[in-house]
User: Which sequence fits this backbone?
């Protein structure tokens, strides 16, 4: 009897392994949380030093100023650290690339899922996977060698600018948006299609009025995800946009983004100086924008779940 009680009270090997697995999983999750919060704290402390440290740069002047020369002091005694040209450039290339990429992504996804799934899986899927695996620097070199001369030949000028950056980012985010759109369309239940066709709708009416509408939350998530990728891209956009820290007046003149100015200047400044601190403030803006994109994605996902 005592042997039976001892065996029942003793943990089996499987339960011990399960307990070890739980502990290891908890440690990994805790480590991820610590790393994320450490990154936020580090970037925030460096970025906020521009406004609350010895530099005392005005937040309003930083966000809405148009003169970018942090080493110089303006007539009002404030550093010329206006980030509005870079903010405007980042949003312009992000929105324009998303606007251009979305129709192509939806068209490719419809072809791969509804029109010709076999040919789509055979030809388009490998192409999309290949585009995802190409490094950013290769996209930048292609843009520098092909897109910039093409823009120069059509519009004149240097060829560098927001339009060149838009076309490079369009190709870069297209596979991401397409893949997620394919998953969103595949997630639409088949009885939606069957019910629509049973009511006498054509295939195109079913695609446009039933499938795409049902997959709208997933498609919007794909577009926002692509915009987040475009907003944070640094190397490729730096090679084709011109890196001129001035307010963009048109789409074909040299401009700049938060990432292009940040990557160009961070290695040429001394830690703790105002020139270095304002670059960390740009990094903080990028971090906050990534949070905004993630919040938007979660909101869209929750709305999609409520509709479902």
Assistant:
């Amino acid at each position: 009897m005592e042997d039976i009680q001892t065996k029942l009270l003793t943990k089996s090997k499987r339960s011990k392994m399960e307990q070890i697995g739980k502990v290891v999983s908890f440690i990994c999750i805790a480590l991820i949380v610590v790393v994320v919060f450490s990154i936020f704290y580090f970037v925030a402390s460096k970025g906020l030093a521009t406004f609350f440290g010895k530099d005392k740069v005005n937040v309003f002047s930083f966000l809405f100023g148009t003169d970018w020369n942090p080493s110089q002091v303006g007539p009002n005694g404030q550093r010329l650290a206006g980030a509005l040209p870079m903010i405007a450039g980042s949003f312009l290339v992000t929105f324009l690339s998303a606007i251009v990429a979305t129709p192509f992504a939806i068209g490719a996804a419809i072809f791969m899922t509804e029109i010709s799934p076999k040919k789509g899986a055979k030809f388009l899927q490998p192409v999309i996977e290949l585009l995802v695996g190409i490094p950013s620097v290769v996209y930048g070199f292609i843009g520098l060698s092909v897109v910039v001369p093409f823009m120069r030949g059509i519009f004149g000028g240097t060829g560098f600018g927001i339009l060149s950056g838009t076309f490079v980012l369009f190709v870069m985010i297209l596979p991401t948006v397409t893949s997620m759109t394919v998953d969103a369309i595949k997630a639409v239940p088949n009885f939606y299609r069957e019910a629509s066709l049973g009511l006498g709708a054509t295939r195109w009416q079913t695609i446009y009025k039933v499938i795409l509408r049902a997959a709208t939350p997933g498609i919007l998530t794909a577009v926002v995800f692509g915009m987040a990728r475009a907003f944070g891209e640094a190397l490729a956009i730096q090679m084709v946009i011109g890196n001129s820290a001035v307010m963009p007046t048109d789409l074909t003149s040299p401009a700049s983004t938060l990432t292009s100015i940040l990557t160009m200047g961070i290695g040429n400044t001394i830690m703790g100086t105002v020139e270095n601190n304002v670059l960390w403030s740009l990094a903080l803006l990028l971090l906050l924008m990534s949070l905004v994109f993630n919040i938007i994605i979660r909101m869209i996902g929750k709305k999609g779940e409520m509709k479902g």
